[in-house]
Design the sequence.
């Protein structure tokens, strides 16, 4: 997708790939090459932590569990590797809670490899867990090959899916998300500062992660909350640490000040209807999951908003109340800014023989017309 809407507002970024998302509504406020596959660099560690948090939540792990710094973790991720490191010693047994901080605050490759090996036996097996979770939470394009983000030709993500991954972590693991805002972490005698340039520069900034490889350029996934509203940003392909910092601060501040909320539908209000083939009724009423349905729109752009209901249809009975059967797409200047899942607001049983025959004739006629 393009980025004409933001340019129409006079907004630009030096990032090669970028997304700005409103956390609550999922509205994409800005996108630039959002679906282009790119190397994640250390942003892959967001998925590493998502797997860990998921295991902690389910009880498969505890913060007191210990993991060993293997020779592989020490050589590829340790002090002599030339990359980000927790500076753990070979054969050290380290509590998971400390390794988590080593990954989040210090971006330690040694810590990430130790977690992967401890949880799954190898990084290859752990990457399988990363991909399973990615698909489960709706990341369809991203592919992970290791826990660190170190270069691998097959490891690719998109800016849009990184934004959704950040949203998943914030929403589902608030008890661990707070670690992303901790300013520093000391392991052994070495104290390292959090590398997130938003912390201390943008009000309410509290996450998440920076990254860099030659292939990805300087990248960042960030989030901040102001007056009850949260914004998530993703930037990649920047040329320097300084440029990354300047662009991150600029785009985050813009995300908070340049948009206004619009309520599209009240809580429980019918959003529309989907056709039902051979049912006791010809259509089923649709609603969003819960609460009012709203979107954030650039100030002055209300008249450019359009909506469409998308579903594979006609639907076949029985349709049960609560079934997810469609999506509401909200478009601004022709670009999809927000997608919301829609659910059947009622049940529709199979119709009588007469009703089914009538629908069959109508579908045949429609098919002939389409042909």
Sequence:
């Amino acid at each position: 997708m393009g980025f004409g809407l933001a340019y129409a507002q006079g907004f630009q970024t030096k990032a090669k790939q970028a997304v700005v998302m409103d956390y609550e509504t999922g509205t994409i406020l800005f996108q630039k090459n959002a679906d282009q596959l790119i190397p994640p660099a250390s942003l892959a560690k967001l998925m590493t932590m998502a797997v860990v948090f998921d295991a902690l939540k389910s009880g498969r792990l505890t913060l007191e569990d210990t993991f060993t710094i293997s020779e592989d973790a020490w050589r590829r991720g340790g002090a002599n590797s030339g990359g980000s490191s927790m500076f753990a010693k070979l054969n050290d047994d380290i509590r998971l809670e400390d390794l988590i901080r080593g990954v989040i605050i210090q971006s330690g490759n040694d810590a990430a490899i130790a977690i992967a090996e401890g949880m799954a036996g190898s990084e290859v097996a752990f990457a399988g867990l990363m991909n399973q979770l990615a698909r489960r939470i709706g990341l369809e394009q991203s592919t992970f090959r290791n826990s660190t983000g170190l270069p691998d030709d097959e490891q690719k993500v998109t800016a849009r899916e990184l934004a959704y991954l950040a949203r998943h972590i914030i929403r589902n693991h608030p008890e661990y998300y707070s670690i992303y805002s901790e300013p520093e972490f000391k392991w052994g005698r070495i104290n390292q500062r959090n590398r997130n340039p938003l912390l201390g520069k943008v009000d309410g900034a509290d996450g998440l992660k920076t990254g860099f490889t030659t292939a990805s350029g300087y990248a960042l996934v960030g989030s901040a909350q102001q007056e009850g509203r949260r914004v998530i940003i993703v930037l990649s392909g920047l040329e320097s640490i300084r440029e990354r910092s300047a662009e991150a601060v600029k785009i985050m501040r813009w995300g908070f000040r340049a948009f206004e909320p619009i309520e599209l539908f009240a809580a429980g209000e019918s959003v529309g209807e989907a056709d039902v083939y051979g049912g006791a009724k010809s259509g089923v009423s649709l609603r969003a999951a819960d609460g009012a349905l709203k979107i954030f729109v650039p100030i002055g752009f209300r008249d450019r908003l359009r909506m469409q209901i998308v579903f594979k249809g006609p639907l076949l009975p029985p349709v049960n109340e609560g079934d997810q059967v469609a999506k509401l797409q909200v478009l601004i200047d022709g670009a999809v800014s927000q997608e919301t899942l829609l659910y059947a607001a009622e049940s529709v049983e199979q119709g009588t023989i007469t009703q089914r025959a009538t629908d069959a004739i109508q579908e045949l006629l429609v098919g002939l017309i389409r042909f």
Notes: Residues 1-8, 354-371 have pLDDT under 50 and may be disordered. The domain at 263-370 is CATH 2.60.410.10 (Peptidoglycan synthesis regulatory factor (PBP3), Domain 2). The radius of gyration is 24 Å.
